[in-house]
Amino acid sequence: MLAGLGAGLLAGLGAGLLAGLGAGLLAGCSDEAERLPPARPGDTLFEHLHQARIEHYPESNLDGDVDAVARAAVAKGDAGTLALLTPVLEDWIPGRTLGDFNTPQGVLALFEGDASLRLWRAKPGIRPAAGTPDPVPLRDGRIVEPWIPVSGDPFPGELLHWLGEESTLRGISKDAPADLRLLYETEVRSEFGSLERPLFEGVAPDPETLTRRARLLTMSRRALLLPAPAALSVPLGPLQAERLELAVGALDQSWSSVTLADDRRVVQRGRGRTDGMSFVVEVDDGTGFVEAWRAELPATDAGVRWIED
User: Fold this and answer.
1) What is the pLDDT of residues 86-138, one digit of tens each?
2) Where do the DSSP E strands lie in 157-202?
3) How far apart (Å, rounded) are the C-alpha atoms in residues 128 and 258?
């Protein structure tokens, strides 16, 4: 069985990926396995998912406050959205200065005549729900109020603007905007749909619906994604092979609830909360399950690398 503490991925029987607490292989020893066609050398886990079974799948892996917010959004049906806070925006792309554009003096005057102010862009990779307001920039839990150049108010040193057609936050300032996050509304299913399936379906999902591409750092694989703790069994027919190859990993993804300066509670994504995972494969040898393989994935490797054997 494949065991884990956290959230992980399994690729196996040749190449693949599994995450969870407990995945068992019944390889040609049980009555059930004897009735199955032989497993062929080179087969992957994915060729046998139609006969796999979810033995355990947690109702939710979300913290209590986040779980309550998610369930309230799900209760609204298709209209359910979630107020989500991004991590601090760090990957700002510098552009040209106002002086590079030969900005007219009348326009420069709005920016106190500072031609060294630079254009900046950040692409946070978010998907606001259709029909919801534009994302709002926050700093220290407070909304950064927009500055309107023709308002007559002095330039505060920073101008921010969300460009929806490019999903880009643009800024004008001397240095890259610092300590900024975006608050936006997203569809609750798009945020939790692949990881918290019982929230939407009420029951554990079919194993064949759990495959996806999973990227850890620079390597992407087709994977079977399970929350942990979870348990999966894969009955196999007679297995004529000397080696079972596995690749396992863990997604470093979590959510927490935070309170803004105006006392609103919103959800934010985070990383670095896992304490590591254990993966175990057990095989039914005809007398019971015996441990055939084990791997330990430390917290420092979550979201970074695959363990292959």
Assistant:
1) 989 999 999 999 988 887 888 888 888 899 999 999 999 998 999 999 999 99
2) 158-163, 168-173, 181-187
3) 19
